[in-house]
Amino acid sequence: MKLDLPRTKESAGPSGLPAKVILHVPWYADLKEAKADGKALPIEGRLLSIPAGAGEVALGFERDPAVSIDYEKAVQEWKAEYRERYQEWRRKKPEASPFDPFPEKRFPTREEGAARSRELAAVEGVAVDRPARASSASEGNDASNATDGVGGENTLCWEPAVGDSDPWWMVDLGEETTVARIRVQAAEGAPPLKFRLEASRDGEQWTRLADYWENGIRGRHGAYDLFFPALKTRTLRLTFPRSFRPRITEVFVYSSPPDWQKPTPWPQPPP
């Protein structure tokens, strides 16, 4: 690795270079040795301090066999960690508003940002943590992943098992609830969705709310926003064409239309 550092008047060092360069060693690497211009550098945990005047840095490391870089496992561990951090934050700041979880105006960590997204979904949405079931599920891709409150193209998803010839997914809202819009979030790289969206009060009589069975639709960044006149329902169901294999990361259900669809009050003259 060669360093080509810019020289600026604002730099801390007298030569116009930064005072030092800090290298963060990846979590999966076990750093064995480090040299700058042929001289050994001290290794302190996962931080390596490199002299600013160094021209060439040589690193010797091995992959730590005790650390897993399996994607699915990493996601599971990440979700477990931020859930724990979120609960800890709620215990320490019970008086804080859920809409301002970072009053000190610092930039939130990735875990805090995910917890924030989940909390907003729970405040505004009506399907978070509601029981979901499906025709089938591939290993690790359960129906409940689509109601955990964590959307995005790279989170856990529901996916039917291979060979499922009649795939469907549904969520029980627990009671009759007003529903006015739904966002279906597909996983990264998933094909354009083909589906029907239906609603039912009793689980037997179904009302069709959207039909993209034949041609399908392509969402924006994997998100499919569906708007319709508000109605009362308890169960929502997505059905898919024969042998179609969707990958759904989240189904957000809202009781009110988006802000841009809400009527704007007519301005009143001053008294």
Percent helix among the residues? 10-25%
Question: Alpha-carbon distance between the termini?
Answer: 71 Å
Low-confidence stretches: 7-13, 96-107, 260-267
Please identify the structural class as seen in this structure: alpha+beta
Report the mean per-residue pLDDT as an integer. Answer: 77
Please identify the oligomeric state: single chain
At the fourth level of CATH, the homologous superfamily of the largest domain is Galactose-binding domain-like
What is the topology?
Elements: E1 20-24, E2 29-36, E3 39-40, E4 43-44, E5 47-51, E6 57-63, H1 71-92, H2 110-124, E7 132-134, E8 168-186, E9 196-200, E10 207-211, E11 223-239, E12 248-254
Antiparallel strand pairs: 1-5, 2-3, 2-6, 4-5, 7-8, 8-11, 8-12, 9-10, 9-11
Helix pairs in contact: 1-2
Structure described in brief:
By secondary structure, the protein is α+β, with helices and mostly antiparallel strands. The protein is built from two helices and twelve strands. The chain is elongated and about 75 Å long.
Describe the structure.
The chain folds into 3 domains: 1-67, no CATH class; 68-124; 127-259, Jelly Rolls (Sandwich), CATH 2.60.120. It is built from 2 helices and 12 strands. The strands form 3 sheets. Strands 7, 8, 9, 10, 11 and 12 form a 6-stranded antiparallel beta sheet that branches. A 3-stranded antiparallel beta sheet has the order 1-5-4, with no helix packed on it. Mean pLDDT is 77; it is low at 7-13, 96-107 and 260-267. By secondary structure, the chain is of the alpha+beta class.
